[in-house]
Structures are given as C-alpha cells and as structure tokens.
C-alpha cells in the first residue's frame, strides 16, 4: 500500500458548517456510521459518531446496525471492520492510507517464518493486513498483548509480530525466552527516541509521562525510570484508550505524551485543565492524515473507496480477530 504511491492528501474542502451539514446528511441518507481513529485530524474526530482506538472501533463496527461503515483510519482497520462485518458496506475515504507497520511483514514472509518454527503459536498485533491475520492464531492489541502471550502454554514457541517494540515490552513483562519477535516498526513511533524523551522529562520535572508501548522510547523510558532519571511513578505505559482514562485520573498539571500527535486532541477534550505536550511534535502519521475533509465528502458522495476482503482470507482471519475482541478490553488498541 505504501510503496511508490502518490500520497498527496486530497484537499480543497474547508471543514466549515456547510461541509458538516452535507457529511451528516449524506451519512443519514446512506444509513452510514462514521468511525474515526484517535490519530485522525481534529475535524474528522469531531464529526464522527464514534472516536477511539482500533479495538474499540472494531467492536462498534461489529455491533452496529448501520448498513455502511465509513472508517476514518488506515486501511488495515477498515479491513478488520470488513472481516467482522462481511455483509456491510465498508468504505475508507482514501484507500491509499496504509500503515508502514502493517507493511513490514507479508503473508509470504510469515509463512516462511512459521515453517522455521513448526508448532509455534502466531500472535499478531492488530496492525497487520487481512492476509497476515489469516495466517495468525490470535491477534492482540497493545493492552492485551501480555495477557494473550501469558495464556499460551509455557512450552509453546510464540512468534510475535510485527512490532519489535511492543514485542520487547511483552517479552520483558512475561520473561518468556521462547518468544520470537519480528523486526518491524512504525516510522512514527520509532521516531520518538530515548534522548528526546529524557530531555523533555528533564525540562518538565513535575509532568507525568504517557507512553504508548509501540514507541521506540518505551524501553528507554523504563530504563530511565530505573536509573532515577525519570521518577518511576511518573512513567505510565498505556494503550491509547487507557491514556484517555488516565488523563481523567491524573493529578499532574502537565503530561508529556509519547505517541502520534492526533492523540492530543482526545486527551485535551477529556481533561481540558491539563497541559498535554507531545514528546515529539513531528510524530504525525501521514497515512492517518490522508483522511481529509475532502476525502470524507468524496467518500459519501461517490461511495469510495470500498474495502473488499477475499471471502476465504476473511473466514480464516475472523477467528484470530474475534479472540482479540473477546480478550481485549475496550480502549485497548493503537
Ligand atoms: S502511526 Fe504507525 S502504526 Fe499507526 S497507522 Fe501510522 S504508520 Fe501505522
């Protein structure tokens, strides 16, 4: 998805009242529910019927009575909605919105890896294509990854993919030696590094630190906490959904946030009295930001881009996704 495509977002439409009125009226006429991921542009988050992380949105998509799901997020998320709701029409406003993490392993690569480890249990983070999910035993989110791996008999090898930072986090917490980790990464999360985090923490000594475990800085943050450079009780490793819950609970007046910057919009709405600051304000996912006001309007006007998943692949992927939904608590994904 993300190779040599022109990734220039569709522009030319202002998110004004006329835009909001047309989007909502077209959605009503088409019996469409608008879902927006936490990393979407603020105007997309604000017009959506539901905003959340990928797991929460997957659950809503599966339970919704709407005939059409408009998934404002990246392609694997819309695919997951289609896997769970094969009879609904699922649209993503711009099908070029891929994910560098999902693209870091193909189904062929996974089949070859499985052949090297016969009998291993495959655990895939939800940021994977439908074809990779079809080769997976159980999908996980960042909040249930530890529980999922811990539930697998200790003598079984585990193949964990595709995110190496989430894999390192799970391996550290479970202490499991027979966990093999695919060396994939998200360019956005990997760009949030330890030295930057340490500097930001030193500049804001009273701030809480909210860290998403896919960030390359999660290991550094725990290390820094252990060294006393960052007070251990200030560091919170959280899924994006749990960040919103924690934002409402914290007593801190300043919170440093290490994840994609779209998350700041939800946090500021949840706790307007807190000063939320990005650890790296360049941590913006270009794929997420391809869902523009213009793309959303085009989607509703022209019925594009419709998401299709091969029926055989969907059938094989569905079990792994359903296990993830059963184990994961709402608010537990990216
Ligand atoms: S932030 Fe990274 S993992 Fe998330 S959708 Fe963008 S590229 Fe994928």
From TrEMBL:
Q: In which pathway does it act?
A: Cofactor biosynthesis; NAD(+) biosynthesis; quinolinate from iminoaspartate: step 1/1
Q: Which InterPro entries match?
A: NadA (IPR003473), NadA_sf (IPR036094)
- Could you say which enzyme class this protein belongs to? transferase
Answer yes or no on keyword Iron: yes
Pfam family of the protein (one): NadA
- Name the UniProt key words of this record, in alphabetical order: 4Fe-4S, Cytoplasm, Iron, Iron-sulfur, Metal-binding, Pyridine nucleotide biosynthesis, Transferase
Specify the signal sequence span.
Answer: none
The coenzyme or cofactor needed here is:
[4Fe-4S] cluster
Q: Which GO terms describe its molecular function?
A: 4 iron, 4 sulfur cluster binding; metal ion binding; quinolinate synthetase A activity
According to UniProt, the name of this protein is Quinolinate synthase
């Amino acid at each position: 998805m993300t190779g040599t495509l022109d990734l220039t977002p569709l522009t030319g439409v202002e998110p004004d009242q006329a835009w909001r009125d047309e989007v909502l009226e077209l959605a009503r006429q088409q019996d469409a529910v608008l879902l927006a991921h936490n990393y979407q542009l603020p105007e997309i988050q604000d017009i959506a019927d539901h905003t959340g992380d990928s797991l929460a949105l997957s659950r809503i998509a599966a339970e919704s009575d709407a005939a059409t799901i408009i998934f404002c997020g990246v392609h694997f998320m819309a695919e997951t909605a289609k896997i769970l709701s094969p009879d609904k029409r699922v649209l993503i406003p711009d099908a070029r919105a891929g994910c560098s993490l999902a693209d870091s392993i193909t189904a062929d690569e996974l089949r070859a890896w499985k052949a090297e480890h016969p009998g291993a249990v495959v655990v895939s983070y939800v940021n994977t294509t439908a074809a990779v999910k079809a080769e997976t035993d159980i999908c996980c989110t960042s909040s249930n990854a530890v529980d999922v791996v811990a539930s697998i008999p200790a003598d079984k090898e585990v193949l964990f993919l595709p995110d190496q930072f989430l894999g390192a986090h799970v391996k550290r917490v479970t202490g499991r030696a027979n966990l093999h980790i695919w060396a994939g990464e998200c360019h956005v999360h990997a760009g949030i590094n330890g030295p930057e985090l340490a500097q930001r923490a030193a500049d804001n000594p009273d701030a809480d630190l909210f860290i998403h475990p896919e960030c390359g800085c999660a290991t550094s943050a725990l290390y820094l906490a252990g060294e006393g450079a960052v007070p251990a009780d200030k560091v919170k490793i959280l899924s994006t959904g749990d960040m919103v819950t924690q934002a409402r609970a914290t007593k801190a007046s300043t919170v440093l946030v290490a994840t994609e910057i779209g998350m700041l919009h939800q946090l500021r709405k949840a706790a307007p009295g807190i000063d939320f600051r990005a650890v790296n304000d360049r941590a913006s996912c270009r794929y997420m930001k391809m869902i523009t006001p213009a793309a959303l309007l085009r989607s509703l006007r022209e019925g594009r881009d419709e998401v299709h998943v091969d029926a055989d692949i969907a059938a094989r992927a569905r079990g792994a996704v359903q296990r993830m939904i059963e184990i994961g608590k709402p608010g537990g994904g990216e």
